[in-house]
């Protein structure tokens, strides 16, 4: 199986970069603060049936990067399977 040209691996590279960057951000937080600092905290009334008082779990930018990277990785793989 031949490797795809670099121009076709843009989404894959973007996804891996987000995942590694988010993981590195969380490691740095853990080393500097002893824990990961979560600072994005949202409350939505429509989430009340799922979360107490609609309080969505706290997260940070690194968590968001890891999540977006994982979604992009899945999309890239689905796109690659569809092409094959």
Tally of DSSP helical segments: 2
Strand elements, count: 0
Identify the overall geometry: flat
Low-confidence stretches: none
Helix content: 55-70%
- Sketch the topology as an H/E string, one letter per element: HH
Mean of the pLDDT scores? Answer: 90
How much of the sequence lies in strands comes to under 5%
Judged by helices, strands and strand pairing, the structural class is mainly alpha
Computed Rg: 17 Å
N/C terminus separation? 11 Å
**Could you say how many structural domains there are in total?**
1
Q: How would a crystallographer describe the biggest sheet?
A: none
Structural description of this entry:
By secondary structure, this protein is mainly α. 56% of the residues lie in helices and 0% in strands. It starts with 9 loop residues before the first helix and ends with a helix.
């Amino acid at each position: 199986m031949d490797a795809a040209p670099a121009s076709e691996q843009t989404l894959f590279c973007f996804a891996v970069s987000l995942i590694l960057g988010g993981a590195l951000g969380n490691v740095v937080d853990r080393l500097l603060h002893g824990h990961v600092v979560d600072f994005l905290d949202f409350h939505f009334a429509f989430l009340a049936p799922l979360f107490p008082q609609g309080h969505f779990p706290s997260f940070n930018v690194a968590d968001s990067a890891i999540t977006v990277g994982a979604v992009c990785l899945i999309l890239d793989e689905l796109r690659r399977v569809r092409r094959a």
